[in-house]
Design goal:
The complex is a heterodimer. Chain A is α+β, with helices and mostly antiparallel strands. Chain A contains four helices and nine strands, in the order βββαβββββααβα. The longest helix of chain A is centred in the last third of the chain and has 12 residues, at 112-123. In chain B, the strands form four sheets. A six-stranded mixed beta sheet of chain B has the order 10-11-12-9-3-13. A six-stranded antiparallel beta barrel of chain B has the order 14-17-16-15-18-19. Classes of the chains: A alpha+beta, B alpha+beta.
Chain lengths: 124, 339
C-alpha cells in the first residue's frame, strides 16, 4: 500500500516498514536534483518533521517524514547518484526505510487516488 | 501577468513557466543541466523579451549618456555596445546595463526587467535628452554557444560574421548584438514583436531552447553579476568588482567588503543569503548567488566578504543548516570559454 503527503513525499508500506521518497510531481517541479542530505540509520523521526534536504540546481527543499519511527536504512547509492530522483522518483530513488512507531498515523495520509485529486486541485 | 509574444511557443515546447518581473517566463523546457550543457557545447536559445529597452536620443544624447552611465560614451564608436552602471548619489548601483551607440545622437539602453520602471524614471529625471521606453515593442532573443554564430549566419546572412564582440548591426528591423550573459560567443537579437515568432522558429530548430534556470547557472559560471542578488541599490562598483567600468567613481571612504568567488570544498551547496564565516564561526560575509553548476560540476558561489578575508589565504566557511562547510576563495570568472 502506498500513501502520500501534501508535501509530495510517498511512503510505501510493507508490514511495519515504510520506504520513503518524493513523488514524480515533486522531482519535476524541482528540476535536476544535485544533492541530498539524508538521516543515518538509528535516527528517530517524527511525522511531519524535517528528515532531510533535497537540492536541485535551482532550489533547496526540505523533506518531511510521512511517519514517525526509526530509520532502518538510508539509500547511500542515491546519495552518490542524486540524478536518480529525476530518473525514477518512485522506484530506485527511495530515500530511507523507517520502522514505524505508530501505524495509525497512516490514516492521516493520502491514498494514491486522493493524491492525484490533490495534484489536480493544486495546479488550479 | 504579462506574456511575451513567444509565450505560446514556450507552452508548445512543454516549458515549465514561472513569474519573473511581472512576466510569465520559461524556467526550463527539458532540464537545467541539459540546457546548460547545450550552451557550453553547441547552442542554446533564450527568450529574454522581459528585458527593457530605453531610447536616449536627440542633440544632447551623448552628453546625457555621459551623465547617466559610468562609462564615457565618447570612447565608443557608432555600432559599439558597452557594459556600464547607473549609480545613485551614494554610489549604489541602480542598474547594470548594456548601452548601444548608434550615433552621438542615438543610444539604446537595455535594462534589467525588474528595474525597468525605476530606470526609466531615473533616466528621465536625470537628463535633458529625449527618453522613450520602447520595451513593449521589442522582443529579445539570445542565441549562445560555440555554434550560435554559425546558426545565426545561416539564417540572417554572413553579414553577422562581421559583427565583433560587443559590436552590433541593424539587419532589417532587427538589432543584432554580439553580446551575451552566458560566457559563450553568440548574439542577443532585438526583434520587433511581430517578427519574433518567425525568428524564434528559425533559430530554435537548430539550437536548444533554454529557460531562466540555465541562464542563471551559465551567468554564474561566467562570473557575471545578477542584479537584485549580487548587486543592488546598496552595493557600490568597487566592492562589486565593477570598478573597471566606473573609473570616474571614487568610493567616499574605505571599501570594507568585496564580491568574491567561492568554490565549496565539501558536498554542501552555498545558496543566496547563507552566512560566510571565519574558522571560529564569526560572520564575515554573505552569499549572494550559489548553486552546483552543471558544466564545472562544482558547488560555486558569489559572496560579499570582509576585506581582511579576501586575500584567498584565509580559511573561510559557509554556514549550511548550522554546519560550517569549507570554501575556497577564487577569482572570477569560474569559467572562461576556450579561445
Amino acid at each position: 500500500m502506498i500513501y502520500f503527503t501534501k508535501e509530495h513525499e510517498w511512503a510505501f508500506i510493507e508490514g511495519n516498514v515504510a520506504k520513503i521518497g518524493i513523488t514524480d510531481h515533486a522531482q519535476h517541479s524541482l528540476g535536476d536534483v544535485v544533492y541530498l542530505e539524508l538521516p543515518e540509520p538509528g535516527k528517530k523521526l517524527e511525522k511531519d518533521k524535517i528528515f532531510g534536504v533535497v537540492e536541485s540546481v535551482k532550489a533547496v527543499s526540505d523533506l518531511f517524514s510521512p511517519v514517525s519511527g526509526s530509520v532502518l536504512e538510508t539509500n547511500q547509492q542515491l546519495v552518490q547518484n542524486p540524478e536518480w530522483v529525476n530518473q525514477d522518483a518512485m522506484g530506485k530513488a527511495w530515500m530511507i526505510q523507517v520502522e514505524m512507531g505508530n501505524k495509525a498515523e497512516l490514516g492521516s495520509l493520502m491514498t494514491q487516488e486522493q493524491y492525484e485529486h490533490y495534484l489536480k486541485q493544486e495546479v488550479k | 501577468m504579462k506574456t511575451t509574444p513567444l509565450y505560446h511557443r514556450h507552452l508548445e515546447l512543454g516549458a515549465q513557466m514561472t513569474e519573473f518581473a511581472g512576466y510569465q517566463m520559461p524556467v526550463r523546457y527539458t532540464g537545467d543541466k541539459l540546457e546548460h550543457m547545450a550552451v557550453r557545447q553547441k547552442a542554446g536559445i533564450f527568450d529574454v523579451s522581459h528585458m527593457g529597452e530605453v531610447w536616449v536620443t536627440g542633440p544632447h544624447a551623448e552628453q546625457a549618456m555621459s551623465q547617466l552611465n559610468t562609462q564615457d560614451p565618447s570612447r565608443f564608436a557608432p555600432g559599439q555596445a558597452y557594459y556600464g552602471l547607473l549609480l545613485n548619489s551614494q554610489g549604489g548601483i541602480i542598474d547594470d546595463v548594456i548601452s548601444y551607440k548608434f550615433s552621438p545622437e542615438k543610444f539604446l539602453i537595455c535594462v534589467n526587467a525588474a528595474n525597468r520602471e525605476k530606470d526609466f524614471n531615473w533616466i528621465k529625471s536625470h537628463c535633458d535628452a529625449e527618453v522613450e521606453d520602447a520595451s513593449d515593442s521589442w522582443c529579445q532573443i539570445a542565441i549562445q554557444g560555440p555554434e550560435a554564430v554559425g546558426i545565426t549566419a545561416r539564417y540572417l546572412g554572413d553579414q553577422v560574421l562581421a559583427i565583433k564582440r560587443f559590436g552590433f548591426a541593424q539587419i532589417g528591423d532587427m538589432i543584432v548584438a554580439r553580446t551575451g550573459y552566458t560566457g559563450e560567443d553568440g548574439f542577443e537579437i532585438f526583434v520587433p514583436n511581430a517578427q519574433a515568432v518567425k525568428l524564434w522558429d528559425a533559430l530554435a530548430s537548430q539550437a536548444t531552447p533554454c529557460g531562466l534556470a540555465a541562464r542563471d547557472t551559465l551567468r554564474l559560471e561566467a562570473g557575471m553579476c545578477l542584479y537584485g542578488h549580487d548587486i543592488n541599490d546598496h552595493t557600490n562598483p568597487v566592492e562589486a568588482g565593477l570598478g573597471w567600468c566606473a573609473k570616474n567613481w571614487k568610493a567616499p571612504g574605505e571599501v570594507h567588503r568585496r564580491l568574491v568567488g567561492l568554490v565549496m570544498q565539501g558536498q554542501g551547496i552555498a545558496r543566496p543569503d547563507y552566512e560566510v564565516c571565519n574558522q571560529v564561526g564569526q560572520k564575515i560575509g554573505q552569499v549572494t548567488s550559489g548553486t552546483k553548476t552543471p558544466y564545472l560540476n562544482q558547488a560555486i558561489a558569489m559572496a560579499y566578504i570582509d576585506r581582511p578575508y579576501c586575500d584567498g589565504a584565509s580559511e573561510v566557511y559557509v554556514k549550511i543548516r548550522g554546519r560550517l562547510e569549507p570554501a575556497k576563495i577564487t577569482q572570477l570568472p569560474f569559467y572562461r570559454r576556450p579561445q
